[in-house]
Design the sequence.
């Protein structure tokens, strides 16, 4: 009786082992990883070109600007200008004469206001996002 149960179970175990092998191959490091989003590529480019976003933690327009970058917003070089903000660089903002938020510094020029990804790419000489 034990032999009968084992014989009926063996093909199922073999099938499960094969499935486990296939799944392991699909999740290995050799699996294809998706390319970074356009937002992430632009954020990296802005960092490489020493571009900076000046803002304030309480500023809704700054939140709107960061939202355009989705998950890549954390990759941006961001300077907190509010005196009571986290990691405040209030004096730097005063020295730069930042008058409104957000303000972008790109190529040594200041650009106040929320900017579209297309405008940021143009201002920083990065290719525009692909059209769908």
Sequence:
């Amino acid at each position: 009786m034990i032999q009968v149960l084992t014989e009926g179970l063996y093909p199922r175990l073999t099938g499960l082992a094969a499935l486990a092998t296939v799944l392991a191959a699909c999740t290995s490091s050799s699996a294809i990883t998706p390319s970074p989003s356009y937002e992430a590529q632009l954020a990296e480019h802005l960092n490489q070109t020493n571009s900076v976003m000046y803002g304030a933690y309480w500023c809704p327009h700054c939140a709107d600007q960061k939202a355009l970058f989705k998950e890549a917003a954390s990759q941006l070089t961001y300077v907190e200008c509010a005196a009571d903000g986290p990691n405040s660089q209030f004096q730097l903002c005063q020295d730069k004469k930042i008058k409104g938020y957000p303000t972008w510094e790109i190529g040594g020029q200041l650009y106040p206001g929320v900017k579209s990804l297309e405008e940021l790419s143009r201002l920083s000489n990065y290719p525009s996002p692909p059209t769908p």
In short: DSSP finds five helices and four strands in the chain. The chain has a mean pLDDT of 84. The first helix runs from residue 2 to 26. Residues 40 and 71 are 8 Å apart (CA to CA).
